[in-house]
Design a protein that fits this description.
Helices cover about 20% and strands about 30% of the residues. It has about 350 residues and is of the alpha+beta class. The strands form 4 sheets. Strands 2, 4, 5, 7, 8 and 9 form a 6-stranded mixed sheet that branches. It has a 5-stranded mixed sheet with strand order 11-17-16-13-14. Strands 1-3-6 form a 3-stranded antiparallel sheet, with no helix packed on it.
Length: about 350
Amino acid sequence: MQNQKEPENWKLQFFSACVVAVFLAIVLLVSSRSTTNPQPAPQLANERGLESDIPYSYLSDLFSREASEPLAPSGSSADEEGTRGDEFGTNPDLLPTFVNPLLNPTAELSAPKLHDVLTLGESFFIKWNTGAEEGPVRLKVFESAVSYCGYDQDCLSSLGAFVKNYTIGETPARSGVFEWQVGQITGQNEQLSPGKYFVRLETAEGQALGDSQSFAVVSKNEQLTLDVAVPYDPEQMPYEAEPLVFSTEGDLPYGIMWNSAPSIFYVDIFVRSQTCGSECREGSGLYQIAEAIPNGLVWGWYPGRGDIKGARIPAGDYELYIQDDHDGSIKSAARIFQLE
């Protein structure tokens, strides 16, 4: 019986190593690009880890491609069913397109604003000021790369060429307002999926004029939920599994991943000791490892750096949970892991 479990445990350890490898690849690639093509680096929302609005499944592809190779839309049936090539071959509307970067913005978008929550099917007025711009303008919505950029709009705009975008309408520039049925996409029967986005205003020729801040699109029956994916729950695995093991040695990030409602913009992350004995009753077994970080569904934790106050976290068994920064009652179930 013992021999049958060893291959499964090996797969588990390999999965954990892959999570770490993805984060290391991101850090190394971003560093190499900044060296070969120096430019002002965007200020991440939290220097303790990696945050952004791109789903975690995007990350390995995003930083292994050049700007001329945009990604396929996340969450599409092609991605889920493994038929990306066939579906793209028969439906060119699903092909991601390379877009012009926002270099010299000439338009100011006043709505939507950061933290706005728009409900699918309802009307929302997008507002802007283009100054002397004449002629028609096109409105697009872009997926927000929150897991990498946080809510830094300059950073989000610079990654616009890598993410799927959708045209939602055209109107005269001088009108300054466009009524959008939230989720509606020009020329398509399908609507946007719930998530975080920003609006881009551009000319009919494709020249980018300005971007809005990030906002959330939610369904009418959205449930305010959080659910941790990594660390995983050993009891929910299809075979007997051991908790993940994180190490405080070295200065390497460990991936923490979760799913949540799009309307949650910031989260706090905690670990609670399961082996601290009487100390737990006094609260010293609880450590906060992240505070008010953008809800990008993935974050890199450096266990060797301690909690947010720099206090060392001793070795032992811990449970990890994530909660809404604004409403502590909205939190994930705990996940057990080992720290050594």
